Amino acid sequence: MKLPPIFFTTLIALPLLPSLLTAAKNESPVDFQQQIAPLLSQRCVSCHSPNIKKGELSLATPDDMLDSGFVLPGDVDGSYLLEVIVGHDEKPAAMPKDGEPLTEAEVALLKRWVEQGAAWPEGLVIREASKADKSWWSLQPIAQVDPPEVADAPDAWRKNPIDRFVWAKLAAANLKPNSHADRRTLIRRATFDLTGLPPTPAEVDAFVADDSPDAYPQLIDRLLASPRYGERWGRHWLDVIRFGESRGFERNQIITNLWPFRDYVIRSINEDKPFDQFIREHLAGDVIAPNTPNVEIGAAFLVAGPYDDVGNQDPVQAAQIRANTIDEMIRASSEAFLGLTVGCARCHDHKFDAISQKDYYGLYATFAGVKHGERAVATESERNERAARLKDLQTQQAELTRQRDDIENFSIARGEAKTEHYQQLWSRPAISRQSTEERFPPITAKMVRLVVEGQEKNPNANSGYRIDEFEIWTAEEKSQNVALSSTGATADGKSRQAGDFDGAYSPTLTIDGKFGARWLASGPELTITLSEPQSIDRILFSSDRPGAAADHGVANFVSEYRILVSTDGDAWTEVANSHDRQPVNEAHRRKRLLAAELTDDDHAQRAELGKQLAEVNKAISQVPPLPVWWVGSRIAANGPFHLFLGGSPERKGETVTPGSLSGLSETAPSYELPAEAAESERRLKLADWIVDSQNPLPQRVLANRIWQHHFGTGIVATPNDFGYMGSEPSHPELLDWLAQQLADNGWKLKPLHRQIMLSQAYQQSSKHRAAAAKVDGDARLLWRYPPRRLSAEEVRDVVLQISGQMNLKMGGPGFRLYQYLQDNVATYVPLDEHDASTYRRAVYHHNARAARTDLMTEFDSPDCAFSAPRRDETTTPLQALTMLNHDFTLDMAQFLAERLQKEAGDDPQAQVERAYALCYGRQPTEAETKACVALSAEHGLPALCRVLLNTSELIYLH
């Protein structure tokens, strides 16, 4: 059987192992697994696999190749596989189209395999060969590395093992390091690196004056012990794990109860919690220590990313959204803890790394039981104490409610017996959302009032309803709507305004006949005032007029009303009401029957029960609720689990079970759990596997992150990708040495900080040398300390600090530099003015997704929709414009001027000297002093402060 050529497409040509070519020349039996499988893997299945299936053909299984007739065992001439790779009748080979043709030896090997019966071992699936297999450097065990001997290095560079590694690399490139940085530069560098804040002038002066050999080590120890350390390095980690306090996607609603996780991160880093424990808590804190809030909150990591909560009713789309949600957790976890892009294996085996699609769906099965959302988090004793306090109150509440309901139900039953009476009483049609009309005898009116007595969803409520049009018609042959704004009419009524999405609802009713904007009431009355008294006989209003804005289920509709008119606003006459209309629903009907049938005794008893119930409800409300945090919930999700072909939940492939990554099976003990394993067991097993001492990736990845934030670039410049597409390590032996130090110190970060910062490489100056730059322009080999610009948070924090306005309060709900507007979707409007409640460290800002925050956004604060393992560092005109003109920096310039006057008096030169000490940690030169004094004299001290806040020296670290 021959298949048409359209079924084939380009095959990627990759070199085969020499052993394959040798084997093709002899007549020994063909070994499929050793000879044919690698050939198909390297030359065919990159395009022809179950997931890609170009030309509707897969060559990955015997079902795909043999059962299709593409290969006929024993029949070389009849096997279309050989025809397309060899050609026939002077027709060239069709495959591969863009690559080199198969060699004679490769073709001969395939022919022999077909001649010998095309044997294919049962269960063997051919997968595309990755470019980085299990021998890839980052997957290898951490090497026990000894620092190199560097006999030619100065004594200072031979003491710290880190310096010996750095010196050896420099020497190999014929480079020498810079000299030591001056002490003012060093304290500024170290203080910013560990705390994200500048040193005070007093701290700088004390350090410069202290020439003891322990001064610098003691400085490092003091900074590591500061609570500011956890705030700075907590921000680094929050970047990596895409922490954000809104849901993202098109609705992007704010999350107000995820801040305890941010505080947990800062607290854990300040405590120097072992990072392997930290990772385990991120993945399974609720399993490790249930009912222990300070640990359980760690698992909020899983739901700290963006979450599509649109709630699609289409089951196909809902399944896709769920798959996307779990994919986000897989990517966040694998990149943060393993430095691997496991998410690339969602649709097919990873093209570059030793990660199979089966690996991906093993993690999918692991996280399948995690759901986004909030729940109470408390200790067992707190839960029991609250339950005990509520028990008697809830019993009283239930009994009082039962007695009240009995009275109401008896009254309603009496009314039910009078159905015919009420049918006659309620003779008019029910209120219509689309258009409700009232006619009455002509009457002169200057003002018309709608008094709402109930609404559709809650017959007892008289606010929260919606009106999209209100019309008043004159009593004349050519009747006119005189309620139009174009005729001078105005509308007045309390409206829901605060927090509304801009434009979704008008603060006052739009009375223009266009049925566009809608008015959402927060009070029971709406009054229309006409331009002049008119004789009217008809009112029409609507809440859901055809052609008006979509409902989205956010508002209610009027169910009971009265209409009053007045000529002076004092005396009012009722001209219509809804009391003779049919009820709009059963709840409305019950309300009317109660009003009509309750006797005086019933009213008295009901009132007394209501009073007692109100007291009980008040007592219940005074029992403090358990804390409710955005930590997610758990479902069983016992499978069976499948591969999704092409990543589509609608195309299920082979079954999978929770398990580890196969690419690490030779260096870290692998595991595989049954599909019915408990959801908690799956996550705990994954957490334990990740931090297993034989898993080399987490230690390398973490050590690299620490190095990166001290030198600007990691030893691996792609901190979330240690795979084929990532960068190669600049100092591989040093990276392994640092990883081993991390393990030897019990996964604690502070000893590693200290080791790095005490190195000569860290303490050298940032002086630029043209000759060295020609060899190593980015200073990856560390011939100088690489200068950097402060991060967005540091820029804002340093301005607050030197102006004397910094509020160092730690923890709790974050402040907002935007106004939150919410309806069905959310909008975050940047604030033009920042009051004192926002003068906290930027790490405590309520970090919403897709929310601009002016200064911080301009200085490259990333959107937390994705992991941000490295901050961008751009230079744009908006940065200068914002720093020069935003009210925040103008306010801070004024505060700094006031501080200078307070601390330096009225002497202009003393003010300049104090300003330089605060801003730069140094004294001004004579020329700088002269220029600054002149500027202050001409334009005022606040103007000088504004200039200083806009200098490069303030925001660049050397």
From TrEMBL:
Residues 23-118 form the Cytochrome c domain. It comes from the Bacteria. Pfam families: PSCyt1, PSCyt2, PSD1. The keyword Iron applies. GO terms for molecular function: electron transfer activity; heme binding; metal ion binding. Keywords: Heme, Iron, Metal-binding, Signal. InterPro entries: Cyt_c-like_dom, Cyt_c-like_dom_sf, Cyt_c_Planctomycete-type, DUF1549, DUF1553, Galactose-bd-like_sf. Residues 1-23 form the signal peptide. Transmembrane segments: none annotated. PANTHER family: CYCLOINULO-OLIGOSACCHARIDE FRUCTANOTRANSFERASE-RELATED, F-BOX DOMAIN-CONTAINING PROTEIN. This is F5/8 type C domain protein. The lineage of its organism: Bacteria, Pseudomonadati, Planctomycetota, Planctomycetia, Pirellulales.
